[in-house]
């Protein structure tokens, strides 16, 4: 199974609709992850620093990036154990490439 792991900065919720302002990137990513996760072949896992700090400790590459560059390196995206992006969420085109899904048609 292909795995897309996204390690995010501390958020009060993963959808981006809580707090004083809505983050459209988080809303888009949440919708795309929902579509992708309906598949048996690909899984999107989002790790939030506030809700799952141990995941950041267990993933040595993310811990090393934070130690070297600070928290601004987040979000970090790892696809099949390869760091593919840091400092920004994957675009729709990138999520399509990582997952093999046509997300423009389904989201």
Automatic annotation (TrEMBL):
Coiled coil: none
Biological processes, Gene Ontology terms: negative regulation of DNA-templated transcription; response to arsenic-containing substance
Source organism: Levilactobacillus koreensis
Signal peptide positions on this chain: none
Single Gene Ontology MF annotation: DNA binding
Name of the protein in its database record: Arsenical resistance operon transcriptional repressor ArsD
């Amino acid at each position: 199974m292909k795995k897309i792991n996204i390690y995010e900065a501390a958020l009060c919720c993963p959808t981006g609709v809580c707090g004083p302002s809505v983050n459209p990137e988080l809303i888009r990513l949440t919708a795309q992850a929902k579509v992708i996760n309906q598949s048996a072949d690909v899984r999107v896992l989002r790790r939030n620093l506030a809700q799952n700090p141990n995941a950041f400790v267990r993933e040595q590459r993310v811990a090393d990036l934070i130690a070297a560059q600070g928290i601004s390196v987040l979000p970090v995206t790892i696809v099949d154990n390869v760091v593919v992006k840091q400092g920004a969420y994957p675009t729709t085109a990138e999520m399509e490439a990582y997952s093999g899904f046509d997300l423009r048609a389904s989201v």
